[in-house]
Specification:
InterPro entries: RNase_HII, RNase_HII/HIII, RNase_HII/HIII_dom, RNaseH-like_sf, RNaseH_sf. Belongs to the RNase HII family. This is Ribonuclease. Its EC number is 3.1.26.4. The protein is of the alpha/beta class and about 200 residues long. It has 2 domains: about 1-145, Ribonuclease H-like superfamily/Ribonuclease H (Nucleotidyltransferase, domain 5, 2-Layer Sandwich); about 150-195, no CATH class. The protein is built from 6 helices and 5 strands. It has helices spanning about 50-60, 70-80, 80-100, 130-155, 160, 170-175, and strands at about 10-15, 25-30, 65-70, 105, 120. It is elongated. The chain starts with 8 loop residues before the first strand and ends in a 23-residue tail after the last helix.
């Protein structure tokens, strides 16, 4: 997009569509041609240390960053698709309020966005540096919520290890302790009676 004459390009992506517990986090990162990184790797395939180092660079060098955090209760109320659309829209709105951008690229979600031209791409994080940065920012923020907030509140579930995703350990802990308040009930129907057993 910079080659097309756009100077400030925003990219939006989310983290946490699939977990059984915890929020959905969306990020929107606005970059200019002077951004020092040429590429950002898939945030799910690099170490937490590398992610945090890149996160610091992005936060320091980006023109603007917008975030949206959607709770598990809201996900249960409206469904994951509408929650995702809302989160991406809010993140983009927060970014444009913090620093103007001229073009928005989104990872495959068509938003009712009229403030700038918008492009929805499949696997956008592989094609857009701004979207890759947004995906990494969203993941770092969400992982921090699971590690620093939910894990101390509900230590028996091991959220710092699996971040709420459906791992064998997580399934084992749900069967042992039931569902915690931070579990998405709409994602956990397979656990049946476990829904009411949490006593923490």
């Amino acid at each position: 997009m910079w080659r097309s004459g756009y100077h400030h390009v925003g990219g939006a992506d989310e983290a946490g569509r699939g977990p059984l517990a915890g929020p959905l986090v969306a990020g929107c990162v606005v970059l200019s041609p002077s951004f020092p990184l040429q590429s950002v790797p898939d945030s799910k395939r690099i170490s937490p240390t590398r992610r945090k180092a890149l996160f610091e660079i992005i936060c320091r060098e980006a023109v603007a960053i917008g975030l949206s955090i959607v709770s598990e209760r809201w996900i249960d109320l409206v469904g994951i698709q509408r929650a995702n659309e809302f989160a991406l829209y809010e993140a983009a709105w927060r970014a444009i309020a913090a620093g103007r951008f001229e073009y928005l690229i989104v990872d495959w979600v068509r938003l009712p966005w009229s403030f700038t031209p918008v492009l929805a791409l499949p696997r956008a994080e592989e094609q857009s540096l701004a979207v890759a940065c947004a995906a990494l920012v969203a993941k770092v923020v969400r992982d921090s919520i699971m590690e620093e907030w939910y894990d101390p509140l509900f230590p028996e579930y091991g959220f710092s290890q699996h971040k709420g995703y459906g791992t064998a350990l997580h399934f084992e802990r749900i069967r042992a302790f039931g569902l915690a308040p931070c579990h998405r009930r709409s994602f956990c129907g397979q656990f049946g009676e476990a829904k009411e057993r949490y006593t923490g």
